[in-house]
Design brief:
Rossmann fold, alpha/beta, two-stranded antiparallel ribbon, 11 strands
């Protein structure tokens, strides 16, 4: 089985500046880490590898320093890694990101299974995985809680729907996005770190793709238009009240009424 896992390097802090003109996060000079949800995707792939035999490729999109998350993936049991990096990819919205990753998946091969984390902590859209599947022309299932059975031609999963838990079978090749808790991510292995310290990471730019039209990537390929973006203003105003339960209740009601909440 060939498995591709999509991972991302995200800011390691919530104190990130935003370019008010482009609406893009200023990532230079800030601490970064692997997107937490992607750890569950990696663990899912490695569990499948250990149980059924598989070759795992991790793919990421970002600046050259994003190669660090691929090195971390090697330390968790991933076999190969590819980084899609090009200034022309900068400023991608969900659509352009999904398209770029789909092009990268095609470039690295034709996997039986693509696994993504539910979402990223710097975007929170949970749309990239399903949109990738559409660009790849393969079926997908989002919000996977458990993998129940793996066959030669399909996989059976349990998925979290808005009001129910459902079981579905999906044929290979396919894409799934996994929830936190599907497996407990393992810690990076020092032994694997030493064994993979010189492991090659393949770098792809726009010119390596089948589609080299710049209009489909980065800000050019992003239909989402940011009208205005700014950091929220902090409000440290506060009041400290004292008294009995009845007095506090009366004060709270009065304040809510004053603020026109009731």
């Amino acid at each position: 089985m060939e498995i591709t896992v999509c991972i991302k390097q995200v800011p390691g802090t919530s104190e990130v500046e935003v370019d008010e003109k482009t609406g893009v996060l200023k990532r230079d000079g800030i601490d970064s880490k692997m997107n937490p949800y992607d750890l569950y995707a990696i663990e899912t792939a490695v569990q499948l590898k250990e149980a059924h035999g598989a070759h795992i490729t991790a793919i990421s999109m970002g600046p050259p320093q994003a190669a660090e998350v691929i090195k971390e993936a090697f330390m968790m049991g991933v076999d190969e890694g590819a980084l899609l990096t090009d200034r022309k990819f900068a400023g991608s919205d969900v659509l352009a990101t999904s398209y770029t990753l789909a092009q990268g998946v095609k470039k690295t091969g034709n996997p039986d299974l693509v696994i993504c984390g539910k979402m990223t902590t710097d975007g929170d859209t949970a749309q990239v995985g399903p949109e990738m599947a559409e660009f790849l022309g393969i079926p997908h299932i989002a919000n996977v809680l458990r993998i129940l059975e793996v066959g030669e031609k399909s996989i059976i999963v349990e998925m979290d729907m808005p009001s129910t838990i459902e079981v579905a079978e999906i044929a290979f090749p396919c894409l799934i996005t996994v929830e936190k808790g599907i497996f407990q991510p393992r810690l990076p292995s020092f032994k694997l770190k030493m064994a993979t310290k010189d492991k090659k990471i393949t770098f792809y730019s726009l010119q390596d793709f089948d589609d080299t039209d710049e209009k489909n990537y980065g800000l050019n390929g992003s239909p989402t238009q940011v009208k205005r973006i700014f950091p929220p203003e902090g409000n440290l105003d506060h009041e400290i009240w004292g008294g009995s339960n009845a007095e506090l209740s009366e004060q709270l009601f009065g304040k809510l009424k004053e603020l026109k909440f009731v």
